[in-house]
Design goal:
- This protein starts with a strand and ends in an 11-residue tail after the last helix.
- It has a single domain, classed as 3-Layer(aba) Sandwich (Protein Transport Mog1p, Chain A).
- The protein has helices spanning 7-16, 41-58, 72-88, 108-118, 120-129, 135-147, 165-168, 202-212; strands at residues 2-4, 19-20, 24-34, 102-104, 153-157, 171-181, 186-196.
- Strands 1, 2, 3, 4, 5, 6 and 7 form a seven-stranded antiparallel beta sheet that branches.
- By secondary structure, it is of the alpha+beta class.
- Helix content is 42%, strand content 21%.
- It contains eight helices and seven strands; from the N terminus they run E-H-E-E-H-H-E-H-H-H-E-H-E-E-H.
- It is found in: Nucleus.
- Belongs to the MAF1 family.
- Pfam families: Maf1.
- InterPro entries: Maf1, Maf1_sf.
Amino acid sequence: MKYLEYTPLDSISSFLSHVNLGECILKGNLEAYSCKHTGMDKKLSLSLEKEFLDCLAESPGSFSSSPSLSSKDGRKTLIYLVLTLNHMYPDYDFSAVQAHHFVREDALDNFELKFNSYMLEAAREWASINGESSLLESTLRAIDEVINLEECEVYSYYPDFEEDPSLEKGAIWSFYFFFYNKKLKRVVSFRCACLSKLVMDDDQFVDEMQMNDDWDIFDGMDM
């Protein structure tokens, strides 16, 4: 996979990189990747293909995942999603991720519903600094410009609790979506997590503060 730079995604990612919500910090990212294999991708891709086929051979009737392990296209899609995770979190190994961790969404409405539920405060902050524009509409417009939403398959990712990188950093909640355009051979990933300032360790807290040059982060905290 290769990271692709797209201006339409930059302003959304820049905003989501650090949203101060009082007792919490919201951190998100919107990234585009080409499905062309680079570096170790080919080796991991072959390993995942073998693993998926072995799982299918052991229990051929027990897999009803979406994407499906029983089809070549389904396995290829799963491999692209796992490779994307590896590039999103280069310090983690997602080679053990299983098919049931991904769910294909029947409609874009599911993404919009979760977005509106979890991003309410962030959306208000975005509107206050962007002329009352909608964060959801701005996000969908940016994704559409890069990957054409009408041609996309939308997947959500539900990792096991102990395997979610965001939770290791003190996240209260997190969610992941992937927009895959088979025709363009391109994936757009959307991840977001809400981190409690009370759970973040001192070093991480200082890193966040220095990275964003946001000394107002102390507002509302008991010192």
